[in-house]
Automatic annotation (TrEMBL):
Keywords: Signal. InterPro entries: PQQ_CXXCW, Rhodanese-like_dom, Rhodanese-like_dom_sf. This is Rhodanese. Gene3D superfamilies: Rhodanese-like domain. Residues 94-177 form the Rhodanese domain. It comes from the Bacteria. It comes from Mesorhizobium mediterraneum. Residues 1-23 form the signal peptide.
């Protein structure tokens, strides 16, 4: 029995080194995903290219796309009681990425949309045909929503990396700590 258990453990370990399998045929919604953002995602995004970790790495190494992390960020609440200790969450993302926090929700305010548009323009330039890549984490609809929104805004070279920073990390690729992008006036 020990031989079979060892073989099963080795097989399970090897499977964990590969990219996750898609969780079935998840259909693209007609609009944005509005809730349950951490759930299986579709294999496609109409109007965008979908890339694997190896393809994202090639784009990154060759500097052929501007990378945008769209993971949410929870700011320190303004009304914390005196003496409360607050620790910012540490976000590690793909080196050179721009962290456009909170732009991947299904419904975003005009203020957030403006922040998103300004961040895209400042970092990707005025050329809407420049390659831009969106990611957050594996099975996270935030990057799907953000990439869909960029397509709707007229960007023609949108790339979606659905495995995100944790897929990047599983491939033993470098990560760096980031703070959310701040628009300079």
């Amino acid at each position: 029995m020990k031989g079979k258990e060892t073989i099963l453990l080795v097989a399970a370990g090897l499977l964990s080194l590969t990219e996750p399998m898609w969780a079935g045929d998840i259909a693209e919604p007609g609009g944005y995903r509005m809730d349950e953002y951490r759930a299986p995602v579709p294999q496609t995004l109409q109007g965008a290219s979908v890339v694997t970790t190896a393809e994202a790495e090639a784009l990154w190494r060759e500097k052929k796309a501007v990378f945008f992390d769209v993971m949410p960020n929870t700011p320190k609440p303004a009304n914390l009681p005196a003496g409360t200790i607050w620790r910012e969450a540490i976000r590690k993302d793909i080196p050179g990425s721009i962290w456009l926090a909170n732009v991947g929700y299904g419904a975003i305010s005009e203020e957030t949309a403006s922040y998103f548009r300004q961040g895209l323009a400042a970092e990707a330039g005025a050329d809407k045909s420049r390659a831009i890549l969106f990611y957050c984490m594996t099975n996270c609809w935030m990057s799907w929503n953000a990439a869909k929104r960029a397509v709707e805004w007229g960007y023609s070279s949108v790339i979606w990396y659905p495995l995100g920073a944790d897929g990047w990390e599983r491939a033993n690729l470098p990560l760096e700590e980031k703070k959310p992008y701040v628009i300079s006036n």
